[in-house]
Amino acid sequence: MKPSANDQIETTCLPILSSRNQGWENILVEQYQHQSGQGRTHYSDEHAICLSLASRPVRFLQIKEGKTHASLYGKGDISITPAKMAFFARWEGEDRYLQIRIASGFVQSVARETIDINPDRLELIPEFRTRDPHIESIGMLLLSELQQENLGGRLYIESLANVLAVHLLRQYSAPKPLLAIYEGGLSQRQVLQVLDYLNEHLNQDIKLADLAQLLGMSQFHFSHLFKQSLGIAPYQYLLQQRIERAKQLLKQTERSIMEIALECGFNSHSHLSKQFRQLTGMTPKAYRAN
Predict the structure, then answer these.
(1) Cβ proximity of 103 and 1 under 8 Å
(2) CA 169 distance to own-chain centroid
(3) What is the pTM of this model?
(4) 70: which strand partners?
(5) DSSP for 189-246?
(6) CA–CA gap between residue 132 and residue 204 (Å, rounded)
(7) Chain centroid offset of residue 42 CA
(8) Which helix (H) or strand (E) segment is 92 a member of?
(9) What backbone phi and psi angles, to 5 degrees, belong to 206?
(10) What is the longest distance spanned by two Cα atoms in the chain?
(11) First-residue to last-residue Cα distance in the chain
(12) Residues 160-203: tens digit of each pLDDT
């Protein structure tokens, strides 16, 4: 996701890690580390979440919409700045943090699919400094994906983005929306329809939106009901099936591991090897020879 032309960032610090070239949609995740300084941001189309990774507390002065907040900012502390809101910060000491920028249009789209009021009436509430284990957990999963070069794939990132959007709507919007949650899982016909689709498209970059559209429901509700029905998330099931397909091809064909990787939806030999080893405890080469 690229920043808009009128976004302003008054800082010379470049991120240590960035999802900018990972092909992630609706969400941009970047890790920063810099010394004492100050910065000013204004994102026209993105809500910004900053999660502190600092090993020692950092003294911060923040200004949002004319309101000033000064405090120590420690590991796990979170600030939330809605789209179109100017944000100024000055800090003393080495600061490390994860910035998550999620498209405001995407959050509005999730709201339109999942809540019972007009999403145009909803506003995100700014937070100077708060604790939220749910956002912290999502942030660390996204950071892990950055560090591992997006091993979980697009379906995984889209699932995390949806969960984050729903959590922001539930906890940090006004007026408080009522989100409908459907229980009971998918019907047998729906399960078979989705599993057939996954099996036929294992070598493709499957999107969460594609699966939800198959059944005519929101991405959030699809993920929720899929997990109720099968006990695991869609991205976990997809990974399992890709590994099973790879196992068959390793044993039954003479194809190279690179060819098998591409046929099973992995983008490289090393990508397949890492995931294969995580799920089976051995490399594809060792499995083939076993």
Answers:
(1) yes
(2) 16
(3) 0.82
(4) 61
(5) HHHHHHHHHHHHTTTS---HHHHHHHHTS-HHHHHHHHHHHHSS-HHHHHHHHHHHHH
(6) 35
(7) 22
(8) strand 87-92
(9) -75, 130
(10) 67
(11) 43
(12) 999 999 999 989 998 776 666 667 789 999 999 999 999 999 98
